[in-house]
Specification:
By secondary structure, the protein is α/β, with parallel strands linked by helices. It contains eleven helices and eight strands.
Length: about 300
């Protein structure tokens, strides 16, 4: 009520606003009550709220303006603030900040009924007792000015670390997911004995060139309708691309793991050129594999670079 009177007082005056509103709404405050409320000193709750609001605004801006109540509450607790989740949501509404919303869904899993599928060795038990025991692979997409860019991930279930990734403008097995697998294999020194590689029923993961490469590395293939990595892909796009970082002029894909950080930046200079800049880790990986032919990929090498067109 006070906020409404503050908004209308310059046009109609306090007395007129309160008199008209009391006739329309029972219990509306009087002009005397309004002046008493404006002269009343701030309550202890208002004084407490004044402290975290600037911090919430700052942390929300530092995290690309995408955090919602859950992540903001966890971040504030890590920063040492003694604050509840409902209080965090109320202060975020006062500060005028909110979470980013997810975009519409695009299907990247296109199963081929004619392909023979490896059996499901995971049965949705996404746990491992050591590194290099269970890898989960999946593909997601990013909308750019030039069309869709596709990102392939390989995640170690034990550490939740992204051990291999690749970006391309196509979903073809030898261009997109195979390069992510080769990157992960290079980081593991090419020894994947005893490892289970789990993916969905997408035709790119059931392609002969991909399954042969898994067996060549000594791993055991496993497939299912879902890999359990979809939420991670959606969150990566929602927090690091759709809100704040991705825009019409530039799009940044940031893939962050617990122990390492790699990023791919795709920038559009005007309307004529699109460049793909890879991090130092990706360049070192490409240099190490350049010139080494991968027998299962035919005329492509594991160090070949895909570009977004």
């Amino acid at each position: 009520m006070i906020a409404f009177v503050d908004k209308m007082r310059d046009r109609f005056g306090v007395e007129l606003v309160c008199r008209v509103m009391r006739q329309a709404e029972v219990g509306f405050l009087t002009a005397r009550g309004y002046r008493a409320a404006k002269a009343r000193p701030a309550s202890a709750r208002q004084l407490r709220d004044e402290l975290p609001i600037p911090e919430i605004t700052r942390l929300h801006a530092e995290n690309y303006g995408v955090y919602g109540v859950r992540k903001m509450h966890a971040l504030l607790r890590r920063q040492g603030w003694v604050i509840g989740r409902d209080q965090t949501g109320r202060l975020m509404r006062i500060a005028g900040v909110h979470r980013v919303k997810r975009s519409k869904k695009v299907f990247t899993t296109k199963p081929n009924p004619a392909n023979e599928k490896p059996r499901d060795l995971v049965q949705r038990r996404f746990t491992a007792d050591a590194p290099r025991k269970l890898w989960v692979a999946d593909v997601t997409y990013v909308a750019t000015w030039s069309g869709f860019a596709y990102v392939a991930f390989v995640t170690d279930v034990f550490s939740r670390r992204i051990v291999g990734w690749n970006v391309a403008s196509t979903l073809k097995a030898d261009i997109l997911p195979l390069q992510a697998l080769n990157m992960a294999a290079w980081a593991a020194d090419g020894n994947l004995d005893g490892l289970v590689h789990h993916a969905d029923h997408g035709s790119n993961y059931l392609a002969v060139v991909y399954t042969d490469r898994i067996e060549e590395l000594g791993a055991t293939p496993s497939t299912a309708d879902s890999t359990g990595q979809r939420n991670g892909c959606c969150e990566m796009k929602q927090t690091l691309i759709s809100g704040g970082i991705g825009c019409k002029a530039s799009m940044v894909i940031s893939v962050v793991s617990r122990s390492s950080s790699r990023s791919v930046s795709t920038r559009r200079d005007g309307d004529s050129s699109t460049s793909l800049a890879r991090s130092g880790a990706r360049r070192r990986w490409s240099a190490a594999w350049r010139g080494k032919a991968v027998t299962s990929t035919g005329n492509r090498s594991a160090g070949s670079r895909a570009r977004i067109i």
